[in-house]
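[INFO] parsing input record for Amino acid permease
[DEBUG] input buffer:
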Amino acid sequence: MSDLGLMTRKSVAAIIAEAGEHALGKTLGALSITALGIGCIIGAGIFVLTGTAAAHYAGPAIMISFVVGGIACCFVGLCYAELAALLPVSGSTYTYTYATLGEIFAWIIGWDLILEYAMGASTVAVGWSGYIASLLRNFGINIPPQFAGAPWTESKLPDGTMVAGVINLPAAFIVLLLTAMLVGGTKESARLNNIMVGIKLAVVCAFILLGVGYVTPANWHPFIPDNTGTFGQFGWSGIMRGASVVFFAFIGFDAVSTAAQEAKNPQTDMPIGILGSLLICTILYIAVAGVVTGLVPYTELGVPDPIAKGVDVIGLTWFSVLIKIGALAGLTTVILVLLYGQSRIFFQIAKDGLLPRIFSDVHPSLGTPYKSQLLIGIIVAIVAALTPIDILGEMVSIGTLFAFVLVCGAVIYLRRSDADVARPFKTPGVPVVPILGMLFSLMLMVFLPLATWLRLFIWLAIGLVLYFAYGRSHSVLLNPGAASR
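[DEBUG] output buffer:
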């Protein structure tokens, strides 16, 4: 056992050198990386959170909440862009933390990111199942509810009787299908993602263009509803609470950084992909929020499908089906990107010896970390099929925000510790911009319930047990001569 400490850092030079080992195919350009970001950002957020935040917190001023959320993400996104260009490897926040705070914190954040990626994918898969069942009903095809719901959940049949769920087969199906595509090749998966993103953007833009002609300006008054007397319920405090909620609609741009090692020109492609996807999505969010609150009084938007409710006002029944197709495309790309990102993080952790090295194996002809991808896909499919998940948003969000804080801190640290290293892209206004990113993230974490914090601590405690039971003794950095399998 090496006498190196738990906070031993991996040097920036070593990380960049290792990028050439077990090389992943460089197949992604700036357009595909931007589409990857849009694919993960525009999903459940634009189809659900817009209405929820407007109805309960901000009213029509939800548009301002999206502006605040976009600005907050921009601070963090600029930090991601610098680190992704500086360290073009697949580990994302895990790798950045390894280069700053050291191995123990890198492992903690890698374990923490499972909450965002794997559990997030399971949750979205359950939502996908609901949308596909609804869409098929429009064509007279009914999936038996007991096979579209997890155990201990109940569904109401048309005659009013309740049926208990057995297994959510559609949720498991979409996860396994996308896993097979990801194993088959990143380039092919990127093509599918680009097509799905195109469909999703077309539907969202069609909603904006069609809906704006049916807007009732009276629905925007009062633009900022009076506060109810409770902090966070309308008024300016409600706008900020709404920003806390819709901020989570932006998470996913960080998954773009996991594609750095497969970017054709990461020094330019990564900043374009991260910041470009953020800018496009922020504009679309604001536009959709404006149209939907103009179509439907904000008090009536607290439903799972606020966009579909807005379509009902327009009165075009065919467009309702199109919206469901767009929602399915949106959710599909979110699952795809989350599965992709999680496997790349596992790939990097396994290369460092903190997980069995089998998960860093790259397929000789496909050029993908197929064993890591298969493991993630099977676990996510099982969770999605058997777990009665309503929304794991709070757990997914606290894990993401924790990662955001460390990424912003890593930029400040590396500017001092590795000042002489060439930076293809530099975050402007350091240390002000990273500090603002950290403050926004910490503020939003404070808004989360105590129970969410407790679940996070329990999850991290399990991770620490695994690290000391396996990772520490197999660490390539701490034990250069140790076998890693």
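[INFO] The chain has 16 helices and two strands.
[INFO] shutting down worker
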